[in-house]
Amino acid sequence: MLLPVAFVLATVLQVLVLRFVDPPLTAFMIGRYIEAWSEGQRDFAIAYDWRDADRISPDLPLALVAAEDQHFPTHDGFDFKAIEKARANNAKGRKVRGASTISQQLAKNLFLWRGRSWIRKGLEAWYTVLIETLWPKRRILEVYANVIEYGDGVYGAQAAARSFFGKDAANLSAAESARLAAVLPSPRRYSARNPGPYVQRRSRSIQRQMRALGGQAYLQTLE
Fold this sequence. Notes:
Layout: H1 2-20, H2 27-38, E1 47-48, H3 59-68, H4 80-91, H5 102-111, H6 118-134, H7 137-147, E2 149-151, E3 154-155, H8 157-165, H9 174-182, H10 197-213
Parallel strand pairs: 1-3
Antiparallel strand pairs: 2-3
Helix pairs in contact: 1-6, 3-9, 3-10, 5-6, 5-7, 9-10
């Protein structure tokens, strides 16, 4: 009985603290360090430099929502229509992007490990519920923009803006923001700096979606 109670209290505290404290590191970053060291890359380094939301171009969080989770303002952490669509298409042998919400992706980036298992999915669901319950939507999007991987070892808006465009995150254009969003969820396969045909097409599509959502004014609907 004590173990489940301790687990609940510990995880609630974890999530509650990060509502107010910017994460210095994430589980995915630690995992990438371990992976690099196991492959003998002793000089491997993570690029990560936190920026508060008001120091990030509003085009980037808008692009992330347009690309990854257009129901983000209205769902409670799970997009059940997208999940059902993915399940139905996977049953037919087709894969569909977008079944995981921004909140789910943030939960696994912050607290969990790469890979697929029922245990990890269960923990992801639990952390997603906690994040959606304890954080406002604006904080979820701020942390997500700051901790996800945009290139191999390049985490967060500022590191990506510096690494790929030679500028601060505050100065990212709509097109550059769309390119960063376009490489997700495979930032080691696709490049924001040197976009191939797929990233170029997807970037244009994301920019159209950004305009369709209402542009930067759309972010004002978030609580």
